[in-house]
Request: fold
Amino acid sequence: MRTAPSRTCLGCRRARPKAVLVRLVRPSSGVVVVDPGARAAGRGAYVCPDAACVERALSRGRLAHAFRKPCEVSPDLATAVRAAARRRVAPELGDTSRESDARTTDVVAVRA
Ligand SMILES: [Zn+2]
Reply:
């Protein structure tokens, strides 16, 4: 065993240092979400912040296998993975697009 904890990427199946992977969790709703702080309880799945890996990993079959339960994949999940990875891995890039990824627009209808 090496010192750095490693996890297997769901996309490429390679063991990578946990710190470079994005953690996914499956809440009881069954809808898989990103766990940016890697603190959510329960079983996690990991994916490299790599477009090819994300695409392969975020199939229902892969996720259901990883979590051993049926999973739903939101259309926003790939975006959320990339946003989480950008925040963690490359903050020095100064990529401002992450703001639009991370925030949902609150539409508040105000009627007099
Ligand atoms: Zn991978």
